[in-house]
Amino acid sequence: MSKTSEIKVNIELDQNNVPEKLTWTAQDGGINNEEAKTVLLSIWDAKAKETLRIDLWTKDMPVDEMKIFFHQTLVAMTDTFQRATGDEKMAGAMTDFCDYFAEKLELKKI
Fold this sequence. Notes:
Layout: E1 8-13, E2 19-26, E3 31-36, E4 38-45, E5 50-57, H1 63-85, H2 88-104
Antiparallel strand pairs: 1-2, 2-3, 4-5
């Protein structure tokens, strides 16, 4: 028996179609209309063999937090890549890049 699950993202736009508020709901995860400052969504189109993307952030998303968000996203993508492919060597290279990224943005003090 199959089950479906739904994740909703609501975007409130200003008069210039710039996101002012982002909220999301994932009832299976216990999330109901929670506010967010940014959303990155990637979907694989198997027919076209390409990635479809939605990258949104509110105009009040602080740049310093955006840098942290990107670092955490890159770290998570590295973990996902390793689990999905089993490619330890490339995952190691990606981890090295994440460390470099954090160092250059002074996100980690070495």
